[in-house]
Amino acid sequence: MVKLNRIPKEMGLECDIYVKCDYLNPSGSTNDRLALAMFNSIEKSGNLKPGWTLIAPTCGSTAISLAMISTIRSYKLISVLPESTSPEINITLHALGAQTVHATPESAQKVAHRLHQEIKDSVVLDEHRNQEDSYESLVKEILKTMDGSLDMFVAQTEVASGMNPKIKDCTSVGVTPTGPVLADPLTKAHVASVTLIQIQTNDKDAFEMARKLIKDEGILCGGLSGANVWAACQMAKGLPRETKLVVLLPDSVTNYMSSFLDDDWMKKRGYVV
């Protein structure tokens, strides 16, 4: 857990903002927690055997988390990814021994199930089915650091919705990126009915904030982290000094080397460097 120093002062915020650097997990993403819960659940059910092939329609860092654990536990992995997946993610997946298949968001599930029918001893993973099990350790870590309580928690919507019932007397804020780079079309149907405060962000605000976190705070986070902190700063306006606000930083810079870390890439899109 890290307390932000410069950014809240620059924005005239009274309350302290703490960030949970969950991108420091082994594969560089908070999704390691989700991937581990998925594997533990399906192995416990008996529906997965050593050497089998897992087929996962997913996006970005979740695919890397699944590939890492697949390698450790001797499974084969086929990731069905959006066509817009960054070069960094594709390269990392191949290095981990995973196969990649690209599809549109609308066809990802159909492609995954077609592969399942074609490949013997295979199973399709649903990343939304076991999310609840992945939050227990995160809740414990945050509450331990914050002396047992907090007033506001800000994270991507699917995480905030899962954490909401687990932290008493805490306002949960769900962040949904809408930009062409950060938006995850595969999660829209799963988060639309969630009851909590929701904020939408765009790529410009997210990437500019991520650059500020790197330059001003020395935190090597990614675009989703920037989106969460931007949203937290909007929510923090007017909050009293004693408010305990925690923001989840789910991703690192490693998947963004060819995008917002590049000055020319930012300037081409009219973003502030």
TrEMBL record:
Q: What is this protein called?
A: Tryptophan synthase beta chain-like PALP domain-containing protein
| SUPFAM superfamilies xref list | Tryptophan synthase beta subunit-like PLP-dependent enzymes
| Top-level taxonomic group | Eukaryota
Q: What is the lineage of its organism?
A: Eukaryota, Metazoa, Ecdysozoa, Nematoda, Chromadorea
Q: Which InterPro entries match?
A: Cys_Synth/Cystath_Beta-Synth (IPR050214), TrpB-like_PALP (IPR001926), TrpB-like_PALP_sf (IPR036052)
Q: Which biological process, per GO, is one annotated for this protein?
A: cysteine biosynthetic process
Per its UniProt record, what Pfam families does this chain match?
PALP
Species: Steinernema carpocapsae
> Where is each Tryptophan synthase beta chain-like PALP domain found?
1-159
